[in-house]
Amino acid sequence: MENLRSAMKTDVPHDDITGIDTAKTPLSVLLASVNPNDPPTPTHTMAIALGSNLGDRFANIETALRLIEHPRNLLVGIDDAAAVSVVNTSFMYETAPMYVTDQPRFANCACLIETNMEPRSLLKLLKSIETTVGRVPSIQNGPRAVDLDILLYDSEIIDSRAEDQRQTLDNLANELVVPHPCIAEREFVLRPLADMIPEFVHPVHMKTIRTLLGEVLRQPNDEFPMLKVTPFADYLKLHQLPGICPVPSMGKYWSMRCSNDRPTKVRMMGTLNATPDSFSDGSVNNTLSAALSYAVTSVRQNADIIDIGGYSTRPGAAFVSSKEECQRVVPIMQAIRSHEDQDVRSSLISIDTFRWEVAEAAVQAGANCINDVHSFTGPEYPLTQASAEHLLKMREMAHKLAVPVILMHSRGDAGSNKDYSQYKGGAQEGVRVELGEKVEAVVRGKGGVRRWFVIVDPGIGFSKTVEANCALLREASSITANTRGNPLAGYPQLIGTSRKSFLGAILERPDVDGTYRGRKTQPKEREWATATSVACAVQQGASVVRVHDVQHMRDVVAAASAIWSY
Ligand SMILES: Nc1ncnc2c1ncn2[C@@H]1O[C@H](COP(=O)(O)OP(=O)(O)OP(=O)(O)O)[C@@H](O)[C@H]1O
Ligand SMILES: Nc1nc2c(c(=O)[nH]1)N=C(CO)CN2
Question: Which GO terms describe its molecular function (predicted)?
């Protein structure tokens, strides 16, 4: 019988659960060389379902996960060698309450852990975590701050009840039944499991998780449909429990439909370059008041998030130290957070940086999300040992902060002498493989970033030819398509085309019959071309478009969303 551990390898090859090795790709080899001291693999793999429908739901779940990662904080007298590592997470979902329907919607997800603990001790640990997070006794299937269920323990079948008590589910209190007896009827459990172990064969039903999910989905259901969500962190409001890092409040979130992985609403990211050499707005925003005024204007024009960067990614941009980068962005975050207008003060902000120290300073100053054009490996390309070390540092920081991360495909900084023509299998396949490998390294293994915090970006305009940019854009939905073996399957996607030079290159071309000879454009003169590319991104199912001119692109997003019937 296939066990849980090998099921984890099904879709993407991995030697071990840390997500490193086997494929012998450059990044995996580099990571293994800088991270040789992983603890010996504990003996058991277990799947846990997490749910919450009271209080700060996503923060409750994050708190529970942190407590799971530190079992000795809670269990007195527990074996000193007890070890639990969260090694994989699902996406996060918002779901209609099942059974007792008159209660708030749930947040639901699942994780895989590796442990040397026995199932009974784990159940005790989970019950104690539920209490610590704030669960109080209530009606059966009623509202709760957090619920933690053991879904699977290797491929074992366990039932602690007496033989004659096993006919119903009425006698479960203080007992242990594994696999959890309700898995097969719960979409809110099967979807998260399918994100991680779709090919795992349920040891009782003898069907894969994918098959069980298909069966549940075929049943008629007129409930509120399950949504996939990205929660945002707010460091100005913290939940503090002894023994674990503070957990940010997570009241705001974006959502996608599970039926077609399209957003319930396409989000607009405004772009604020706090750099004197920015390619698109020169030094205009390079003062605190000008930056603040862009932020205020964008919020009033309905931007959903503002991306603030202090280090230009423009080809040939001057080096900026991390101290200088912080000095450029942190005061802007602080000014936004103390603005008199409540809408501005509470707007979502993302920090555009590839450096962990800048990201952390910005988040502590009020940024809600990290946007990294090098998807955690830093500016070097080809990847080196320093890239692998960079990834581990970024990952540790993002894991600790529990904030969303936008991971963009690029091949390092936009230096000279780089050959961008080589994408094995074409641009789509190249991005899926290269970005997919990094995303896997970020999400999987002990200390990984929760899957629900990752947004992917194909990196239009970075390390690609004009033709590759066009091809990526017109087929962007295939990058995150739910096809077997796609490491980017199901992730929300951000697309940034605004004013980029591939649009400039297109506008410079003469038309086919030569009646129009083309013209050179400044970035600001590419707004109509930008509109076309934004419409295409919406049509392709992008969750977020990154733009400069929020007011005009809002109309484009509204019209394109209506045409493609969101
Ligand atoms: N696999 C399991 N995971 C968690 N609890 C279990 C499991 N099997 C049996 N139990 C028992 O179920 C009892 C009720 O747990 P709990 O109050 O969390 O149920 P619930 O959350 O209302 O329902 P459900 O577990 O169906 O989601 C606990 O006392 C526990 O001993
Ligand atoms: N959508 C949803 N419904 C539920 C859930 C849950 O986690 N999600 N948990 C329950 C009892 O454990 C009862 N009903």
Answer: 2-amino-4-hydroxy-6-hydroxymethyldihydropteridine diphosphokinase activity; ATP binding; dihydropteroate synthase activity; kinase activity; metal ion binding
